[in-house]
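Section: Multi-chain targets

For targets with more than one molecule, the full set of components is provided together so that the structure can be written out for the assembly as a whole rather than chain by chain. Components appear in the order listed by the source. The example entry contains two components.
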Amino acid sequence: QVQLQESGPGLVKPAQTLSLTCSVSGASISSGRYHWSWIRQPAGKGLEWIGRIYNTGSTNYSPSLKSRVSMSIDTSKNQVSLNLSSVTAADTAMYFCARGTVSGKDEDYLDYWGQGTLVTASS
Amino acid sequence: DIQMTQSPSSLSASVGDRVTITCRASQSISRYLNWYQQKPGKAPKLLIYAASRLQSGVPSRFSGSGSGTDFTLTISSLQPEDFATYHCQQTYSTQCSFGQGTKVEIK
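Its structure, encoded as tokens over all components, is:
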């Protein structure tokens, strides 16, 4: 049973750095079969892909957030982390982590998601 | 960046109706197109991957089609549990992107 659980502060002050962790159970983040994505969703709005990280530490980031985002992977703890710097009110959203599976031609999809964690950027 | 445009943004339908949602990519994405269902307060759930492949455990009333730039999600006979928001996602580019979502409401 694959499970993902996001954790981190629910409140971040403007201009500070948002830091979240995704703890994974039931699957090894060391496996080359998967990648690990972060997605966010402001209240009442659509999903925004933030970026993803592979077991090698290789990353892909959204062009609109690339200058402020960093992701890392801790294989000893089976966790992935997200840092988003210089936050503003526009970064207030539900943040999800998800497992990506690449299994064949045209096949690259997010098959397991965490429940999400709400982060508010406010003083 | 690849832009994904869903239509309509919302629709009202009755139980038993056939529902079709479309997703258009700003450039060809082959069949790297996924569909997710999201209910209020919940994480999205994978329905369809690679444009037309049904995720395990998803009812067969859901189907997907398309390739290149134009894709469709069809619910053949809408059930009460299908009232939700549906999102498409392209994974052709190393920078993935989602459509803006389509909310399916009860008529």
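DSSP finds no helices and eleven strands in chain A.
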